[in-house]
């Protein structure tokens, strides 16, 4: 039974991916729908980043983690090298936890 389920899901995934290029020229969406889809993809990605960056399991990771993520985000926005972004975020979080910020 599990093999059949995997094969069915694989066939469905292939069909969906194959239909995209075939229908690209046949289906046109209004400009408003395209804008909405772009915005919704951005919001979904931001929500995923926020949940994975600010939680430990099922609960809030604490203010030290939130401030560390903020510092890392600011460093990335200032276009610092990736290693510097990670080190700054981790050092900020660790320093705040050392000072007792939960």
TrEMBL record:
Pfam family, one: AzlD
Lineage: Bacteria, Bacillati, Actinomycetota, Actinomycetes, Pseudonocardiales
Transmembrane portions of the chain: 35-53, 60-77, 83-100
Keywords: Membrane, Transmembrane, Transmembrane helix
Designated name of the protein: Branched-chain amino acid transport protein (AzlD)
